[in-house]
Design goal:
The complex is a heterodimer of chains A (about 90) and B (about 475).
Chain A (H helix, E strand, L loop, with lengths): L1 E4 L9 H12 L15 E5 L7 H4 L7 E5 L6 H10 L7
Parallel strand pairs in A: 1-2, 2-3
Helix pairs in contact in A: 1-3
Chain B lengths: L5 H10 L4 E3 L2 E2 L10 H12 L7 H4 E3 L6 E3 L8 H18 L6 H21 L3 H15 L3 E4 L22 E5 L3 E11 L7 E4 L14 E6 L5 E5 L7 H4 L16 E11 L3 E4 L5 H13 L2 H22 L6 H26 L2 E2 L5 E2 L2 H26 L2 H4 L3 H5 L4 H7 L8 H15 L2 H8 L4 H11 L2 H11 L5
Parallel strand pairs in B: 1-10, 5-8
Antiparallel strand pairs in B: 1-2, 3-4, 6-7, 7-11, 8-9, 9-12, 10-11, 13-14
The chains are: A alpha/beta (about 90), B alpha+beta (about 475).
Chain lengths: ~90, ~475
């Protein structure tokens, strides 16, 4: 899964700290890569607010699945479950 | 060398031997000199954050010239989205430094020159744009730090450059040679100069007939023969030498670490000259640089204000007043003011337009309003911070008193606020507020990117007053 952050101009939560917990909850079940690496099906977009700026400049339609996180309300464990279960969906 | 990391940046500064004076003394190594290190740390953030996946969307861009991924501070705006990202980036970096990080000035010089040299060539059939592209490619490849050198000392403000008693009070060409020009004069208040690599000198105002020698744009390495930097004194500057609580923000600078940059017969080869005598484009260049620079202030000052607001809330919390209704009201007012200035920067970016060169340019009227608001709002925010923080900000004992084996116990006992928060913690936040809300930090909000009067002049030109009078007549049913 490709991990993509927004730029973080004024985030409402600590995106990096949250993702450390998500990565820790996912363990070896998810292999994290970047968007620059080709052949990606799924993207986790982590944005600091509702605007989700990368959606303005990147066409996420080319990926089978894009999950966008705009806050840290979802528990990291639950998010990992969603990521693993929603393989064929384009979930926002 | 290509600069990527903070270490690369510092190494590059160390390798370039620049003549800098601080308090009457020549500085041997600018990278370790305690008054400059905080400014280096601030500027270094523009390199460090570009390498982080969580910030690269704002700190990097794709070059329209080479197609390569570059640091955004070397980018030419290609869309409204680029203009908005610039403002977002400034707010982000201000959250890391709580002070000026200096690189926007060179960034704005590059963008204004890209647009203007294109149009000079179109009219005068010169080759400045082509030359500038070659220079820009080098900046984008090497990622070095450029000072945007616009402000001349100006001497008697009632006289034009060529009418001054001392002709050097505006930077000028004193000799044209086959291989280049010789420049004399000075640039004042130069942000980031002591920790930059080159300076782009530009005319300080629209030039008229007789002022052709002053219509000069040129990129000059700061280690060129004849260049001398004299660092400006700042409020409480020597506290930075102690690296303790009293500095307030020990790691990063206070405003941009400004310097007077003197040019004593400095030779500049033609490939580094991007305007020479075209007085008809000086006004356009100055206005574009000013607009691009005034666009920034709701971003960086909005970000700095976020820290002031956070520190004010903490100061209140540490003294047990955070839940008082008047404190909440004041914090809400500060939040409103900070988001108001940010809105201005976003608005002028969102209303940006494409220039003939293809580069995008913010709405000049809205950009001027943005900066004009800064000349008032930052004072208002600081006033509220002083109100919330209390008189302790002006009377707090020294850090050394806190650590004294004799009187330390009294400072700890009598400067303490609520239980569970140490006196040292309370002192840190009070000193941070003091550092960010007084003296040099405030003056920069007033005069950086031009004094308020320079923004008022723009309203007269761009405010469409005649159209507003017509609209009023129409509503009032006046035909005459």
């Amino acid at each position: 899964m490709a991990l993509k952050y927004c730029g973080g101009c004024n985030p409402g939560f600590d995106r990096v700290a949250y993702m450390q917990k998500v990565k820790s909850a996912a363990g070896a079940d998810i292999e994290w890569v970047t968007l620059d690496e080709g052949g990606i099906d799924a993207v986790l977009l982590v944005t600091g607010c509702e605007t989700a700026c990368p959606r303005r400049s990147i066409d996420f339609g080319e990926y089978k699945q894009t999950v966008t996180i705009r806050d840290d309300k979802q528990s990291p464990g639950d998010l990992v479950k969603i990521l693993l279960e929603s393989e064929a969906r384009n979930e926002d | 060398m290509k600069i990527r990391t903070k270490d690369d940046y510092i190494k590059s500064l160390k390798e370039q031997k620049v003549v800098i004076y601080y308090n009457g003394e020549l500085v041997e190594d600018r990278t370790t000199f305690p008054a400059f290190v905080p400014h280096i740390n601030s500027a270094a953030k523009t390199y460090e954050l570009a390498l982080l996946p969580e910030n690269e969307d704002l700190l990097t861009a794709t070059s329209n010239i080479t197609g390569k991924k570059i640091n955004r501070f070397t980018h030419i705006h290609q869309s409204v989205d680029d203009l908005i990202k610039k403002v977002q980036m400034l707010r982000l970096i201000a959250h890391e430094t709580a002070s000026c990080f200096q690189r926007c000035v060179g960034f704005d010089a590059m963008n204004s020159l890209y647009m203007t040299t294109y149009e000079i060539d179109e009219k005068h059939k010169t080759k400045y744009f082509e030359r500038f592209i070659e220079y820009l490619k080098r900046i984008q490849e090497e990622n070095f730090m450029l000072v945007g050198g616009m402000t001349d000392p100006k001497g008697d403000r009632s006289k034009r450059p060529s009418q001054q008693a001392d002709p050097d009070l505006f930077t000028r060409v004193v000799e044209k040679r086959k291989d280049g020009v010789v420049v004399k004069g000075a640039k004042a208040h130069q942000t980031g100069a002591v920790n930059s690599h080159e300076i782009m000198i530009m005319p300080t105002q629209a030039m008229g007939e007789g002022d052709e020698a002053y219509a000069i744009v040129a990129a000059i390495p700061l280690d060129a023969k004849g260049v001398t930097l004299i660092f400006g004194r700042q409020t409480n500057d020597e506290r930075k030498f102690e690296c303790g609580i009293d500095a307030g923000n020990c790691e990063f600078g206070m405003v941009g670490g400004e310097a007077l940059v003197v040019f004593e017969d400095v030779f500049v080869p033609w490939e580094r000259v991007f305007m020479c005598g075209e007085i008809d484009f000086t006004g356009m260049l100055v206005e574009r640089f000013a607009t691009l620079h005034r666009q920034n202030y709701g971003g960086c000052k909005g970000g700095v204000s976020d820290i002031v607001i956070g520190a004010s809330a903490l100061a209140a919390q540490y003294q047990g007043t955070l839940d008082a209704s008047h404190i909440k009201d004041k914090l809400v007012e500060m939040l409103h003011l900070a988001e108001t200035v940010y809105s201005g920067s976003i608005a002028c970016s969102a209303m940006g337009s494409k220039t003939k060169s293809g580069a995008y340019y913010p709405d000049p009227l809205l950009a001027n309003c943005t900066k004009h608001n800064i000349t008032r709002v930052i004072y208002d925010i600081s006033r509220l911070a002083h109100d919330i923080g209390g008189g302790i900000m002006a009377t707090l004992p020294f850090d050394k008193d806190l650590k004294s084996p004799v009187v330390g116990k009294y400072v700890k006992k009598y400067m303490k606020g609520v239980e569970g928060v140490s006196t040292e913690t309370r002192m840190k936040i009070v000193r941070l507020l003091e550092n960010m809300t007084g003296g040099t930090a405030l003056v920069e909000s007033m005069h950086g990117a031009g004094s308020p009067q320079s923004q008022r002049i723009m309203y007269q030109r761009l405010g469409k007053l005649g159209q507003k009078m017509k609209m009023a007549k129409k509503i009032a049913k006046i035909d005459e």
